[in-house]
TrEMBL record:
Highest taxon above the source species: Bacteria
Domain Amidohydrolase as annotated: residue spans: 195-397
Any one of the GO BP annotations: cytosine catabolic process
Gene Ontology MF terms: cytosine deaminase activity; isoguanine deaminase activity; metal ion binding
Protein name (record): Cytosine deaminase
EC number: 3.5.4.1
Length: 421
């Protein structure tokens, strides 16, 4: 029987390959059987389907995206591929075109892509400088309700640190976030009042019962950056809600002793780190006429050695910060493995797109044990080398034990929004 055409009713997937870490086993990959009935994994029973070692993973968790920016490249291209130009292009496009209808259409397109690729949960950062906060957050809430049975959505406000003043308009933005049960966020970079501003934002989060998620040190500056100050402040204030930091690129170009001491503090503070390998590969160390010497990856191995929870995620898709991408977490994991040389760094890195981001988001980690939802992605590949050597476009995605329609939306759907004005 061809496992790409699974029968209806209870089934047993015989002889599948799964990561040992998802079964509580020490080996990297294990061969086993998985039984499915009533939309869940069960102990045994059902029509047997011979799988020939096909790899099975739980559906993915993508905890750092920008759904509100996605798919604007055609109308707002980055003229030179630099970070500075990306900021300018997005700001101009946002001011001119980010109506509720525009944001909604592009978010829906992105979510359909992610769903077809096998993602079950997404955290998205949302540009939230007024008046955009009052436009985008209601759209986000509508989309979260519409997609609740397919993709669990979390929203994070995104404002620069110099606009995150607890005494200014940011307080109203924080109330919008709290009302939407979101996450308080900002972009951090060294400013004279950084520690005081950070303490104020943490106090705002505590008062509203919110977790925090910051964009941190997304640059190649070898200076001290902001990550160490964040870890110290979390420890000193006793802030006990979840703290996530994304990017942390500059760690790789800092003095090594300083960087490792910073990571010791991050571990002690219980901070979760998200690396965005594809976007940072694209942006960092880009200079006209010069081949990049440094590719933007942060200290993934050193973080893991200290017990820091590390995720990898999609970040931007088809916008001025990253011209490519489709919210395919297999692509993210594949490229992270290559960029970060994770293939000889011990087993369990698959958790960077499964359990680690789920726990950081406060949702149930994916599992393959009886009682877990049968939300699965099935590949013809039988090991990591086969999995990462092809795009796996013929994968099967099960939600509640049933195969979904994996047809991707056509880019032409967005022509009326994304053609150059």
């Amino acid at each position: 029987m061809d496992f790409m055409q699974l029968p209806e009713g209870p089934i047993t997937l015989r002889d599948v390959t799964v990561p040992g870490c998802l079964l509580g086993r020490a080996e990297d990959l294990s061969r086993t059987d998985l039984s499915i009935a009533g939309g869940r994994i069960v102990a045994e029973g059902g029509t047997p389907v011979e799988m020939g070692g096909a790899m099975v993973l739980p559906c993915f968790v993508d905890m750092h995206t920008h759904l509100d920016k996605g798919h604007i490249w055609n109308r707002a291209p980055n003229p030179d591929g630099t970070f500075r130009s990306a900021l300018a292009a997005v700001a101009a496009d946002r001011e001119a075109r980010w109506t509720a209808g525009d944001v909604r259409a592009r978010m829906d397109f992105a979510l359909r892509c992610a769903h077809a690729h096998g993602t079950r949960a997404i955290r998205t950062h949302l540009d939230s400088l007024p008046p955009q906060d009052a436009i985008t957050w209601p759209v986000f809430r509508e989309m979260r309700a519409e997609w609740a049975d397919r993709i669990a959505l979390q929203g994070v406000c995104l404002v620069p640190v110099d606009r995150a003043d607890p005494e200014g308009p940011f307080a109203r933005t924080a109330d919008i976030v709290a009302d939407a049960e979101g996450v308080l966020g900002m972009v951090t970079y060294p400013v004279p009042e950084f520690r005081a501003r950070l303490e104020g934002v943490l106090a705002m989060a505590r008062d509203r019962g919110l977790a925090v998620d910051f964009h941190v040190d997304e640059n190649g500056d070898p200076g001290p950056g902001t990550l160490r100050t964040i870890a110290e402040t979390v420890l000193e204030t006793g802030f006990d809600a979840p703290v996530t930091v994304g990017h942390c690129c500059s760690l790789a170009v800092q003095d090594e002793a300083f960087a490792l001491e910073t990571l010791d503090l991050v571990a002690k503070a219980g901070i979760h780190v998200v690396s965005l390998p594809m976007c940072n590969l694209y942006l960092q160390d880009r200079q006209a006429g010069r081949t990049p010497r440094w590719r933007g990856v942060t200290l993934l191995h050193e973080m893991r050695a200290r017990g820091i929870g590390v995720s990898v995620a999609s970040d931007n898709t088809r916008d001025p910060f990253y011209a490519y991408g489709d919210l395919d977490m297999l692509e993210v994991l594949r490229e992270a493995t290559r960029i970060g040389q994770l293939d000889h760094a011990g087993p369990g890195w698959v958790e960077s797109v499964l359990g680690h981001p789920a726990r950081a988001m406060g949702i149930a980690p994916p599992a393959l044990t009886p009682g877990a939802p049968a939300d699965l992605v099935i590949f013809r590949a039988r090991d990591w080398i086969e999995l990462f050597s092809r795009p796996q476009a013929d994968r099967v995605v099960l939600r509640d034990g049933r195969a979904i329609d994996r047809r991707l939306p056509d880019y032409s759907e967005l022509d009326h929004l994304t053609r150059t004005a």
